Amino acid sequence: MTELTTLERRALAKISTASGGMLIVAADQRNGMKAVMKDAPNGAEGISTEELADAKSDLLAFLGNKAPAILLDPQTALPRVVDDGTLDSDTGLVVAMDASGFAVENGLKRTRYVDGMTPRRVRDLGGDAAKMLWYLRADRRDDEAAVLDDIARLVSECEAEGVLLIVEILTYQLDGESDDDYKAVFPSLIEGAAALSVAAGAKVLKLQYPGSAEGAAAVTAAAAGVPWAVLSAGVDHETFVGQVRTSVENGAAGAMAGRSLWKDGLSISSATREELLTTKALPRLVELESVIDEVLSARP
């Protein structure tokens, strides 16, 4: 396990609950967030950058500030919510470095950086930590050397800048791979991604739910002491709570929850957003934090 620096330890504490469990509201989505605002007069394509920024600001005000930390993007939400005081002083800020979408190279997915994003830029935006997404197929190790080299490079650059980097890994189905074949290898792909990322120097991981208690325990073993948080991947809240409980019971450090919290809590109307986020999303966040803290407090 790669040791955290003092600054990285402070950042990890900032994005964690009082019991030490990671809990971050993921709100860095761009097109995905527009898609859930189904009452927009001209549909998702008609939602402007300014309207999306307004929605993210409300999401922070009525939900994110009630969590230890929020994950935001530098294309719409930042630096606005810092400069205008919407971000509470005791709410941790994780800055997304990845751009929307992906490229395809030799049949494999590749993510891209937001233009101009560097660890220094994360610091300039007020970030306590950074997050970068990579797609990875652990069963294609020889073809993923560039991805692993990029992880190692960015971890090193973030450490030099005093920024904690959360390494998000998404595995995915290949073209021509059957649903059954992908389902069969899915848990091992997440386990393998954890092992490869840690070998590349990752200090904190954000990973998909591997499907079972056994899968979560295998990911924890592969992470070799590096904390990992499970992501919601758009499942409903009740399903995600169960996944988080199982993951944390088997060694995960917490959760990064996005659409499972707010996918039915956003609207093109600010007044409607406030009502939905307060009455629907916030109770879910409270329940999620309670589950994480309950399981962690029961650990020996």
From TrEMBL:
Molecular-function GO term, any one: 6-deoxy-6-sulfofructose-1-phosphate aldolase activity
Family matches, as InterPro entries: Aldolase_TIM (IPR013785), DeoC/FbaB/LacD_aldolase (IPR002915), LacD_aldolase (IPR050552)
Keyword Lyase in record: yes
GO biological process, one term: 6-sulfoquinovose(1-) catabolic process
Keyword Lyase: yes
Cross-referenced Pfam families: DeoC (PF01791)
Keywords for the protein's UniProt record, in alphabetical order: Lyase
Record-stated family: Belongs to the aldolase LacD family.
Designated name of the protein: Tagatose-bisphosphate aldolase
Organism expressing this protein natively: Herbiconiux sp. A18JL235
